[in-house]
Amino acid sequence: MRAEDRSESVRALLRAVRAEGRTALTAPEGRVLADAYGIAVPGEALAGDVDGAVAAAARLGGPVVLKIVSPDILHKTEAGGVVVGVAGAADVRAAFHRIVENARAYDAGARIVGVQVQELVPAGQEVIVGAVTDPAFGKVVAFGLGGTLVEVLKDVTFRLAPVTADEALSMLGSIRAAPVLRGVRGRPGVDRRAVAELVRRVSELVADFPEIAEVDLNPVIATARGAVAADIRVILAERQPVPRRRYTREEILTSMRRLMRPSAVAVIGASPEPGKIGNSVLRNLLDGGFAGDIHPVNPRADDIMGRKAYRSVLDVPGEVDVAVFAIPARSVPAALEEVGRKGIPNAVLIPSGFAETGEHALQAEITEIAERYGVRLLGPNIYGYYSPWHDLCATFCTPYDVKGPVALTSQSGGIGMAVLGFARTTRTGVSAIVGLGNKADLAEDDLLTWFGEDPHTECVAMHFEDLKDGRAFVAAARATVPRKPVVVLKAGRTAAGARAAGSHTGALAGDDAVYDDILRQAGVIRAPGLEDLLEYARALPVLPVPRGDNVVIITGAGGSGVLLSDAVTDNGLRLMEIPPDLDEAFRRLIPPFGAAGNPVDLTGGEPPSTYEAAIRLGLADPRVHALVLGYWHTLLTPPMVFAELTARVVAEFRARGVEKPVVASLAGDVEVEEACRYLFARGVVAYPYTTEKPVAVLGAKYRWARAAGRLPDGS
Q: Which positions ≥6 away from 85 have C-beta within 8 Å?
């Protein structure tokens, strides 16, 4: 079928379904879509009465399957509307009557079109192929194990639709049961390319017709000879989402440049009264050392903190890059109109009282004003933002001025303050700290586009509860990840499946399941918790890029060696199989009661020289790609002695061009805390009292290196 004919046949069918006020297609209607897109389905016929069912079964020959056809019954099995393996006229008649009776008992008001008589598909592996419309990512295609237990097993993976043939094939290897598809215990594998092609065609269907909300092919019977969809369910969207206004990459960078590196800032609602937000914002800007112009705007003051105050932003002389709002929510629209008329490209909306309190109309109003004038909005309902490399502290919170390579963003103000406190405690140098709040306009994809280009940013860490435009975020992540790590903390991962779903695929595609797969495909590192997000952000710029998979553990305690080994496995890393010559070299350092191999157990009774010699061996051997050090506090080798020798040896090798990730776990009394701080400041990621955290950071570095294409092929 030609593409234009295919599209018209599907479009005509969907129009007819809509005209009847329906959102669910019947199985025969689903067959029309399957035929149009080359999706293999069994031979079938629609029987309006029992005699028609008997005749259809005779034409198809052999055992058949009978299914109720009703636009009001989506889950046919639950309604008792499916009978499998029916053979002979008498059995067909009995099955027909039983199905209709079950359907009427299930829903007395359901419209019954008839009974579908379908060829019985030969036995094979049951899989599910489907698609849903995700609130953040739009059309998403799904693949996994199928059948009646699909929602119990939940072995499903997701991708953005449409997918290429290679992307579809990769989905087959992404589920836990992937070996089953290749064949296990004498059971033949399935035709993986045929299954992947089915996935690709479903993804093409939903991409071509945005009005299709969900597609469910379950089960698909996959064999060594092909793949046949035994059942197809299609649900239409009740309404189309309002598209978000899109900006070009250059437009985003232009506005973000003026936001993060402004020459002039106006504070609307600047106040001379301590305790007012407008007072705190102005004070932070002045005390932070911002070198540009700062313009207080307050109709009831002539001078604030020694600065001339203006009645309106329209009275401010010259160009202004950013207007920071510190006025009540109800006053924002009028002031934003003036910002637009002034030609200010960015408005930072600190006030609360918008959509987060149910004031959706008010938020829609300011969004419309901003779009009309081309003003980009940050917020509302935020703590402001910090741009330390520009000495800019546009917030009512405590100032922060430690410059560094980490950009931190948060959707929540409370999380933003946790970010600030962590940065201060650990002396983490930041390139930016940005609050996003309600995301009336600017969102994570805009910030990520900027941070990807910002020369001061080496790692981006983001907390969010949702993505306003998941596809835009994925595009920004894919452009950024090859150059610098992107770490995210997606909150709300246990709220999956909150909405009622009309298909198995819809029930499986809870928010978190989709986020997890698609963020991974974008190369984003997902942090399991807030502390992990912050530690990854702090540590990843410190560690060099690994050049291979071989990880070696060198420890002074056997117990920590076991725990470190577990952590290596848990984080997807590979313990090196120590070659005989290197094993012999390590054995020469170890007392008879120690243990070579991997981990290398030096025992706790060894002097500093043994630690140093072992670390030198690991760094000098090009076959070793990363070191995990386990230290045990002893009087022979005190914590700071261990820290100083480790930092010195690592620095010596780096000066010679040998850069390998080195992480350390220090167990001991409180002195190990100072030793860890000393090591961290010198490029060795070290933590006290934990074997898990340093290896988790190393695992995150490896995940980024793979996503960025930095690890050699075959490593």
A: 63, 65, 120
